[in-house]
Amino acid sequence: MADAQSQQENESTQASRDIFAMDTYMNVTAYGVGANEAVRRAEEEIERLDSLLSTGDQNSEIYQINQNGGGILSEDTAYLVERSLDLYQSTNGAFDIAIYPVMKAWGFTDDNFRVPEEEELQELLTLTDVNDISYDSRTKEISFQKEGMQIDLGGIAKGYTSARIMDIYRECGLKSGLVNLGGNVQALGTKTDGSKWRVAVQNPQDTDQYIGVLSIQDKAVITSGGYERYFEQDGKTYHHIIDPKTGYPAENGLISVSIVTADGTLADGLSTSVFIMGKEAATEYWRAHSDEFDMILMTDDRKIYVTEGIANSFESELDTKIIEKES
């Protein structure tokens, strides 16, 4: 009896830490005997990846690659570039790490917001073709074919970070833990009592409210929406999710996209991509990849669509329609 009680106490040992990194507030929480060690290592990993992948830190690998027009990538950066290039092809260009010059023109990289002239955008769009990136997966060497090209892995970095923290939790022998990286959530296992984690999906039209609650186990839930970063000029709102085909904020009828999958890196990349695609293209894409992820969409007329793989795990008081694998 004493052994059972001791084991239960060890499993319920909790360690938690709040961190500010990657321009957002984060929380890592772990349960179990190795919880304190896991949280300490998680914080170190967040700081390491932030300093590696930051576009603004002059000492970061990405900054140096952008300044030099290429170079030899470290293991983490090479992995993310490879995943990003795959996603670019898979999403028909919706996920584009070469969009950075356009993001800078809008001021989304340094908060000096402005609406660029059409001519300026058209010129910058010539620098955003991922096919102009040369990458050798054997040597990990990357180079840009056009002067002025720059990349940004911000659309995939937080998801990769949460996935890495899940690896650390497992290495520390944990079976229960949660990571919240600025609203991007990834869970290890279940709660200590065996019940599933319950993740609130934020309402993009009222960020103090949520559109529903999703029950998850060993999954990431990553949401993208125009409400995350935006500015107003002359009565019009401009958000930070840029459509690589136009150079303007995506306007395809979606105001929020949540991706649900065991792969945090994929969840992060797809949340942006699906938002840019719009509901119809996103639905077709999901049907072709339904074994890889599920999604929750909110349209600008306040309708919610949930793919059938998570329909039974999602609770909402709003009108919800199920997207089925067969149309």
Plain-language structure description:
The strands form four sheets. This protein has a nine-stranded mixed beta sheet. A three-stranded antiparallel beta sheet has the order 3-5-4. Strands 8-9-16 form a three-stranded antiparallel beta sheet, with no helix packed on it. It has helices at 2-11, 35-53, 61-68, 75-90, 100-106, 118-125, 154-171, 264-277, 279-288; strands at residues 14-21, 24-31, 70-72, 133-136, 141-144, 176-181, 184-189, 197-203, 206-216, 220-224, 230-233, 236-239, 254-261, 294-299, 304-307, 314-315, 320-323. Residues 1-9 have low confidence and may be disordered. With 327 residues, it is an alpha+beta fold. It folds into two domains: 2-51 and 155-323, ApbE-like domains (T-fold), CATH 3.10.520; 56-151, T-fold (Orthogonal Bundle), CATH 1.10.3980.10. It contains nine helices and 17 strands. Helix 7 runs antiparallel to helix 8 (264-277) and helix 8 (264-277) runs antiparallel to helix 9 (279-288). The longest helix is centred in the first third of the chain and has 19 residues, at 35-53. It is 34% helix and 29% strand.
Helical segment tally? 9
CATH topology of the largest domain: T-fold
For the largest sheet, list the strands in their spatial order.
1-2-6-7-10-13-14-15-17
Radius of gyration: 20 Å
Beta-strand residue percentage: 25-35%
| Order of helical and strand elements | HEEHHEHHHEEHEEEEEEEEHHEEEE
> Kindly, what is the distance between the CA atoms of the first and last residues, rounded to a whole number of angstroms?
55 Å
Assembly level = single chain
Give the CA-based shape.
Answer: globular
Overall number of strands: 17
CATH class of the largest domain: Alpha Beta
Q: Helical proportion?
A: 25-40%
Strand count, sense and closure of the main sheet? 9 strands, mixed
**Can you name the CATH architecture of the largest domain?**
Roll
